[in-house]
Amino acid sequence: MTAFRFSSSSLLRKILISSVRGYLGLTLRTMRWTFTVDPAARRLLTAQDGHTAIVAFWHEALPLTPALWWWAEPQNPTLRLHVLISRNKDGRLIADIVGPWRIWSIAGSSDTRGKNKGGAAAIRRMRARLRHGGIVAITPDGPRGPRRQAQQGAAALAAMVKMPIVPIGATCSGFRLKSWDRMIIPVPFGNGRFVCGAPLFHLNADGRSAEEAGQILSDAITDAMDKAEAAMHRRTVTHQAPTEEFRPEPLDLMPSRLWATVATVLAPALPFFLRWRQTSGKEVAARVREKMGFASRSRPTGALIWFHAASVGEVVSILPLVENCLCQNTRLTVLVTTGTVTAARMVEQRMADAARVIHQFVPLDVPRWGKRFLGYWQPQAAIFTESELWPNLIGLCHERNLPVALVNGRLSAASFRKWQKVPRIAKRMLERFAWIAPRALEDAQRFEKLGARTVLASGDLKTVASPLPVKKEALQSLRAQLVGRPVFLAASTHEGEEHVIRKALETLRNEIPDLLTLIVPRHPERGAEVGALFSGAPRRSLGMVPQKADAVWICDTLGELGLFYRLADVVFIGNSLPGVKGGGGGHNPFEPARLNCALATGPLVHNFEEAFQKLGNSVAVVKTATDLAQWVRQMFADPALRAHNAATSKERVSAANEHLVDRLTSRALDLLKS
Hints:
This protein has 3 domains: 231 residues, 3-Layer(aba) Sandwich (Glycerol-3-phosphate (1)-acyltransferase), CATH 3.40.1130.10; 218 residues, 3-Deoxy-D-manno-octulosonic-acid transferase, N-terminal domain (Rossmann fold, 3-Layer(aba) Sandwich), CATH 3.40.50; 183 residues, Glycogen Phosphorylase B (Rossmann fold). Helices cover 42% and strands 16% of the residues. The relative contact order is 0.08. The N terminus is likely disordered. Pathway: Bacterial outer membrane biogenesis; LPS core biosynthesis. Keywords: Transferase.
């Protein structure tokens, strides 16, 4: 019987909440609102210069305030609104009604019996929200009155955080309840008025007592109410602040409803797609359900920050940031998600000793799967990497009031043109980021043109990564076996490039007969294919090592580039030659540069354009097999030039973005506080 009463009560409460929210949403949306806003108040209410304020209105106007939020939030979607609402049952009911509109509540200090429960905690939360760019709304005469008489807490809070109070007056077509506050209940298709008065600074200055400060605040809010009511009756405005008409609508939390609908419709077929990828080795059988939002690990207690990196390159870029965050916050857990199997292995290899790092595969961009993922892990902040822009996941984060940032933000010219074709979706998505840290100046400019609001100074995280790791025993053993042989490495090659490399080696064979060429395909699963191209060359993945008669060694393993870069003095960086499948774009040149390698690349390096610009003429550009053979010949014929080029590259990498990781770490940890 007890259980039945509980579930019935819960059901009735849900029905009541839905009914009230539905009615309130209908009335506020169908009203024609007129806003009269002091210019200084507008800047604070929309955080135009990064500063916010405390918003104060009488308890009677509480049902109307969602319209104020719907006016302010579209002007700055990164805003966060928190309302101080009583801890009693009525207050919790109000909090649940407005919660889906992203109006977040801070439980006040009084319950139904007027006892103080959690007042100090509420003040701490309000201080934290205000100091991190949020708005806090209060009803100084609530929750029990006396009506239109400000209590001392509001002015004390303003003094404590050194922020102004914006007095708000609001009224509309409707009727009033016979309650202590004579609460306004709006009716559909009417008219309404908001008056946002001049901000009140330093209420407690000049030796004013708490009573005097409270009276000044009371007079300001009542004046705003009087002006709103007078303007409502006369349908005119009698003061000088700018006036505008507005039809309110809650901010659409999902950047693209069409994208969300298509993803939802396709969702039943996507598990079959994942199983198909599993047959080709692109998914881990035991972990396929992670891509549907199901967790395979337990969530630890405490703060958790979520980093998402799609593939190996993105993992490499965030590793220094992840490690620094864990070092500076010893109670933090980091959830790292990736999209590919190779990236997952990279996380496991490079962060195997980090007990506070959890890896999961990121769910596909299906709203229901994203909700399942976020509901389980409940991160306090989300940090995406490079060009990982998923509208549904970003919208779901915004819906949960979860701050989102983008590090090493990359937007190629081709991606920029694609997003320009859907500018509204791009703007809605990018303006939800708390901040974007672009990789390069060109990326920053493209993000800003698409609608990003807070774009930080550019800097490439890949310039500050630690040297790639290596197993010392393997390095010593291979060096002993290869002693005396010149070693050339073709790193991270893609389909279409190995043919060019083979032609270059045919030219070099007679000139440098003992040359050993290491070929590391970007995707290790291509090892057999590449080995066949080089007449069955030995493969590292099969445990084979090159003999004296072998001219080529296929290094088709994952996570061993640090080993191969240390074995070779001369390195060609793949995914860059004309004819490469996929159009090229280059790979990270900083990794071999840190390890004293002389470098060459093809001309197609648009994904790492700024990185190659930093290295300048220390990196050779080759376009054909003849060019490549000539460069390799020159490097082995002139050891002094080879050493000079390698030293120049290493020096230029060391000088780049010295304080970038510390700067981004501070920004990332601040997200947890917001």
